[in-house]
């Protein structure tokens, strides 16, 4: 238990007028504050109708008081919640009185931070609270709720438990290495590690869907100059953002734009293309394109349907970090039917808008809007990165196992465990915690 000496308070409902305004107080001074404010400490976990008075006995408001004794509260500390009338003056008077009685205003996320520090929730759950509040779609809210309920954390814990088991077996065996016994095989170490890698891959896929729902998808549009990248961007965005001109190579810089698709953000980067050039300005554009490609969730390769240019396409494909969605544009000129072909190529016209619906559908599918959100978790980039680090540590450990480097094998397993522990906050630096909670809203 992490006993905090300071008592904190904040308005938990939005500032402004409302039928009800809720003020939260957490910390050791709660009984004392309740005594002055309400006359006495209300019975635990009962909604009690009370008059709220200040230290000079003046009536501030009347409303409901709820007392949650430590450790059975959200923060794990003494907590008092006051539900008064949600007017600016009333709430302000109440807060000032509570501060006079020894509490201080809470920083953003400080209630959740205390809940985490007191072991009431883990870090991934604390983050899910903020993500639930901020979610911009029903699907995102559902994913956040599943993470808040601990389903994501449970999966992480199961992986960590398995890793601890493997590590203790290996570390115990290292000291007694005996040529006669193949203890790696006896412990089914390789099989177990492969199983873990599969489970992490599965978890990564589910977490990535949740991440896309929250953060949106980063799409990079690549293609030769003049194939219609800017036009497609404008067509998707429904407004003029990128410069459309018939002169090749106009989009020298990387143009970024954000559009909404069913409440989900799409971050689109219109690139300068990847052709070889001696022009230093264009070279810089190409360098930025390559950076954008590395961070993309989806790469779209745009071609002019009239000039398939297979040589250029092969060249472009070779530079992609992942297989791109190939779109053939300008079908109004080539007279090809619109839509997704059997080979997975999308035919459209950025000019007439034919085939754009098919593209939007494809994107929604890709973001998991059509899939069953019941199996996805809300995740942040740091979760995905930690899962990937655990994944590569385990892959390395397999190599060490094959070469009988037992110490290195044990070390990789330790690193995998550490990476997973960062997700739930078992191993997290203080500055990371500070960063995470600072983005929360006040009163949470
Ligand atoms: P970018 O260089 O790839 O960004 O290409 P732009 O979007 O600037 O388009 C180049 C030229 O092709 C412009 O004149 C556009 O109007 C034209 N264009 C783009 N898409 C289409 C299309 O689907 N049909 C027709 N007919 N013209 C198009
Ligand atoms: Zn362009």
UniProtKB/TrEMBL annotation:
Residues bound to Mg(2+): 230, 251
Annotated GO biological process: tRNA methylation; tRNA wobble uridine modification
Gene3D superfamilies hit by this protein: P-loop containing nucleotide triphosphate hydrolases, Probable tRNA modification gtpase trme, domain 1, tRNA modification GTPase MnmE domain 2
Keyword Cell division tagged: no
A GO molecular-function annotation: GTP binding
Binding site for GTP: 226-231, 245-251, 270-273
EC assignment: 3.6.-.-
InterPro entries the record matches: G_TrmE, GTP-bd, GTP-bd_TrmE_N, GTPase_MnmE, MnmE_dom2, MnmE_helical, P-loop_NTPase, Small_GTP-bd
UniProt-listed CDD domains: trmE (cd04164), TrmE_N (cd14858)
Residue sites binding (6S)-5-formyl-5,6,7,8-tetrahydrofolate per the record: 24, 81, 120, 444
Any Gene Ontology CC annotation: cytosol
Transferase is among the record's keywords: no
Residues covered by the TrmE-type G domain: 216-368
Keywords from the UniProt entry: Cytoplasm, GTP-binding, Hydrolase, Magnesium, Metal-binding, Nucleotide-binding, Potassium, tRNA processing
Binding-site positions, K(+): 226, 245, 247, 250
Family per similarity comment: Belongs to the TRAFAC class TrmE-Era-EngA-EngB-Septin-like GTPase superfamily. TrmE GTPase family.
Subunit and partners: Homodimer. Heterotetramer of two MnmE and two MnmG subunits.
Family annotation (NCBIfam families): mnmE_trmE_thdF (TIGR00450), PRK05291.1-3 (NF003661), small_GTP (TIGR00231)
Role of this protein: Exhibits a very high intrinsic GTPase hydrolysis rate. Involved in the addition of a carboxymethylaminomethyl (cmnm) group at the wobble position (U34) of certain tRNAs, forming tRNA-cmnm(5)s(2)U34.
Protein name: tRNA modification GTPase MnmE
